[in-house]
Amino acid sequence: MSDAEEIFVPLDSLAVALGADEIAGAFFDADFDVVRTGSRGMHWLEPLVEVEKEGSRIGFGPIDPDDVAPLTDAIKSGDFAAHPKHLGAIEAMDWMKAQRRLIFARCGVIDPLSLADYENAGGLLALKKAAMMTPDALCAEVMQSGLRGRGGAGFPAGIKWKTVAGADADQKYVVCNADEGDSGTFADRMIMEGDPFLLIEGMAIAGLAVGATRGFIYLRSEYPIAERVLSEAIRLAYNEDVLGFDVLGSGKRFDLELFIGAGAYICGEETSLLNSLEGKRGEVRAKPPLPALEGLFGKPTLVHNVLSLCAVPAIIADGGKAYAAIGVGRSSGTMPFQLSGDVRHSGLYEAPFGLTLRDLVEKIGGGTRSGKNIRAIQIGGPLGAYLPPSKFDTAIDYEAMIAIGAGVGHGGVVVYNEEVDLLEQARYAFEFCAEESCGKCTPCRIGAVRGVEVIDRIKHGEDHAKNMGVLADLCELMIDGSLCAMGGMTPIPVQSALNHFPEDFAFPSKKRTFGAGAEKKP
Amino acid sequence: MRPYVGRAGGLISALRAVQAEIGYLPSETEAAAATAFNLTRAEVKGVISFYADFVRKPKGETVIRLCAAEACQAQGSRMLEKEVCRRLAIEPGKTSASGDLTLEHVFCLGLCSAGPAAMIDGVLMAKASPEKIVSGFEATKESKK
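Structure tokens for the assembled complex are given below, as produced in the milestone run.
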């Protein structure tokens, strides 16, 4: 190989959307060996480029095309610190130092499409170990780890694994839910783009454990870069017998296919996803039967979110007991939190459960980017609660969040400054539900439309008191009567907005009369 | 259609392939898919109408998608949309009279941490501004000439 200097530039969607491809091209033209990696998760510094010096990776960011020429000079002269965008050693930065990266350990470090790099950084150890373990032993490790589904429901993974493993069928499936549609979440996308072999390894282990020989990744169509990286990674994995009829010489088969969705939020709901994967309309199914017993094509199916499957290799490599020791109470392990909205330090931060919302938003996130006050955060995506600063001292774990009427969801936290109008946000929750409802059950299909109408009446002061009652009623009905979490949880953002920010629902509203709310006239 | 028959989710993958090729799903596609997959035409139509990605009419030559979800709202996407609509004289969900542009909503492009997000003909844009979108649109239009 050449003795040209290596430079690391992310291929991650977010970095690319900020110009990383142009930056990579400019370094290539300047005769550098350009290695495309995932993102480190420090999104306020993207595009972030790195150079290796004396065994550590030195970062520069955010890099504009204009920065490339001076940076090239600085690198060639060896005087890195002279460059104004010099960040020092990445691992020594506060944001990175304080994390516990189990899932994202390799993301941003290695070339995501080099299986050799993956192995050198500890990859495939767990799958090799799993190939020699019995299905019972594998399920027992996952049970002992206390891992709970990271897609939003928080269901104990071990119970699911045992159910599928115990089901008797001629064909079983492992299905990865990569339909990451929740606004404010991007961890699935980042790991699929930055370390795709981790997901493949986790799925292969799951296949061996539950006796499934076929797997599918259901990826949303809004993630074209993840699609490209994953399909190439699957091809490479087949070449090296990580996938196929003889997984790492175990004599056991595991085939994996990538399926691309067609733009439907509801397909993130597992039964809707299964219908979609069968080529049908993505309408939800009534449960029972559970997908673990009658899932894809009526066969026992292990359906897991990307992050749940990506947690598996660490659990098998180090043991379920070690994993259970991380985190708090019944929320074991780490969670990749995703910070966005009006926050200075936005991005991905993986930490054990148990840190508080205030730690995350104020200490780690550094408060708002705009300098305005924080008025609310929404945790857990479009079906998650809006919380005021008075709740920020709550620890982030499954139980503590439920206790305040919220949920961890997929770990997304969106920060809103004082300009937010919570009535508009509540209206949007219904609007979104109306748009994305699969239409199968009435409370969700009709309720969402009625919700928008009722909120509009409240906004304009029509029969205000009566309509406030109708809204409360409607929320209750949707919670009790909907078939799945879409209709059943749409009232969560609405009710939390009502409970914590009642002033925004008053008429006339101070926010809309005097403030800088959504209806402010120029 | 043939390579997709018998595969999991084959109908959806086949429809995606047709649309990638010609930009929309004409009514002949429904008939062809129904025959290939041994379904009724109503079933095929049901699938097409369910998914936001599938369209039965051609879109504009350039498609701008603006994220309308919460994280982008918290970073000014509502104002951005108003301004883009004003400058390009278009409404969300509509195609311009000349057929050069379709503007649509998308719910989340996964670029939440650097919003507002947009996509012009499949190319991602983070920290979008009216200026960036208009110049991106002009450049895309120019590249097609």
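The CA atoms of residues 73 and 464 of chain A lie 66 Å apart. The domain at 422-513 of chain A is CATH 1.20.1440.230 (de novo design (two linked rop proteins)). Further analysis is deferred to the final report.
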